[in-house]
Write a structure and sequence with these properties.
InterPro entries: dCache_1 (IPR033479). It is found in: Cell membrane. It comes from Candidatus Nitrosocosmicus oleophilus. There is one protein chain. With 312 residues, this protein is an alpha+beta fold. 43% of the residues lie in helices and 24% in strands. The chain folds into two domains: 163 residues, Beta-Lactamase, CATH 3.30.450.20; 122 residues, PAS domain (Beta-Lactamase, 2-Layer Sandwich), CATH 3.30.450. Strand 1 and strand 2 form a beta hairpin.
Length: 312
C-alpha cells in the first residue's frame, strides 16, 4: 500500500500554499493604488504610445504591478500542479507496470481498466483530487496512447476516444521525457475547456523504461471565478489567453462564452507573446482601449494576461 500519509501531507501543504498565493494576488488587486513601479515602467516604455497615454500613468502603474502579481500567482499554481503530479509519478505504486492484458480485454467496452482494478494507482489519483481542487481529473495513459484509467471514473466512462496519442501534451511529454503543459483543449469526456499537464512515468528498474504518462487536467472555471470576483471599474476587463489565442478566463461573464472573439490581431497580444510587457492604446472591437499586457511563463508554454479599459 502506498504511503497515503505522505501524499496527504504534501497535498495539504501545497493546497495551503496555492490558496495563500491566490488570495494575496486578489488582495493586491483590490488594494493597489499608490505603489510606485518605476522599474516596470522604464522597462515597458518602448511599448507605450506616450502621446495617448500620458494621462493614464497612474492606472498603467497600478495595472502593470497588478498583472505582475497575477502572473506570478498563476505561474506558481501551474508549477504546483506539475509538482504534485511529478511527486505521484515517482511513487512506487505508480511506477509499477500496468496490467496490459486486462486493458486489452476492456479498452473498447470500458475505455480503460475496470473501476475496481489497479486500485493502488487509482487511490493515489483520488487522494490528489480530494486535496487539490484545481485538478479536475487525472488519467494514466499507456506509451502507445491508450487510456489505462481516469479519475473520477465518470470521466473514463464518458470518454469518447480510447487513444490519446494525437494530443499535443502526450506527444510533448513523450518527446521531451519531461513534464509538459499542452495547448488548451476541449475535453472529449467532459466537453469543457481544460489545460493539461502531462508527466512521463518510468519503472524503478530496467534503466527506467517508460510505462505511461500521468496526466492532470486543470479546471479553468476556477480562474474565471477569481477574475469575475474582482471589483473592476465599469467597462474594464481582464482576460487570460494562451499563445494560440484561446481564451482561458475572462472577468466579463457575458463575453467569456464568445467563441468568435480573437486577440491575436492586437499589438498588445503580439508584444506579450514575444515576452514583452507594457501598455498601448489600440482598437479592441469597435472602440479604442488602453490595453496593459503581461506575459506568463507557463512551464514550457506561454500564457498572456490583458487588462482592457475604455479611453474616456
Amino acid at each position: 500500500m502506498y504511503n497515503k500519509g505522505v501524499l496527504s501531507i504534501l497535498g495539504r501543504v501545497y493546497l495551503n500554499t496555492k490558496l495563500f498565493i491566490g488570495t494575496s494576488a486578489i488582495i493586491l488587486l483590490y488594494g493597489l493604488t499608490t505603489v510606485s513601479t518605476d522599474t516596470l515602467l522604464s522597462s515597458a516604455t518602448p511599448n507605450l504610445d506616450q502621446t495617448k497615454v500620458n494621462s493614464y500613468n497612474e492606472p498603467i502603474n497600478n495595472h502593470l504591478l497588478s498583472l505582475n502579481v497575477l502572473t506570478n500567482s498563476l505561474e506558481n499554481r501551474l508549477y504546483g500542479v506539475a509538482s504534485i503530479l511529478e511527486f505521484a509519478s515517482n511513487l512506487p505504486e505508480m511506477k509499477s507496470v500496468p496490467n496490459v492484458s486486462l486493458l486489452n480485454t476492456t479498452l473498447e467496452t470500458l475505455h480503460g481498466i475496470p473501476q475496481d482494478s489497479d486500485l493502488q494507482k487509482r487511490n493515489i489519483a483520488q487522494e490528489i483530487l480530494s486535496h487539490y481542487h484545481e485538478i479536475a481529473g487525472i488519467a494514466f495513459i499507456m506509451p502507445n496512447g491508450d487510456t489505462y484509467f481516469m479519475e473520477p471514473y465518470a470521466l473514463q466512462s464518458n470518454q469518447t476516444k480510447n487513444n490519446l496519442a494525437y494530443r499535443d501534451y502526450f506527444k510533448g511529454s513523450i518527446a521531451t521525457n519531461d513534464t509538459y503543459l499542452g495547448d488548451i483543449i476541449t475535453s472529449t469526456s467532459s466537453g469543457v475547456k481544460r489545460a493539461i499537464v502531462a508527466v512521463p512515468v518510468f519503472t524503478e528498474k530496467n534503466n527506467g523504461v517508460l510505462t505511461g504518462v500521468l496526466v492532470g487536467s486543470i479546471e479553468l472555471g476556477l480562474l474565471n471565478k477569481e477574475l469575475q470576483s474582482l471589483d473592476l471599474s465599469q467597462g474594464q476587463r481582464i482576460v487570460y489567453v494562451d499563445s494560440n489565442d484561446t481564451k482561458l478566463a475572462d472577468s466579463d461573464r457575458r463575453l467569456f462564452t464568445n467563441s468568435s472573439e480573437t486577440f491575436s490581431n492586437l499589438k498588445s497580444f503580439q508584444n506579450a507573446n514575444e515576452g514583452k510587457f507594457g501598455s498601448i492604446v489600440e482598437k479592441v472591437g469597435q472602440d479604442n482601449m488602453l490595453v496593459t499586457y503581461y506575459p506568463m511563463e507557463a512551464l514550457q508554454n506561454r500564457w498572456i494576461v490583458l487588462w482592457i479599459q475604455p479611453i474616456s
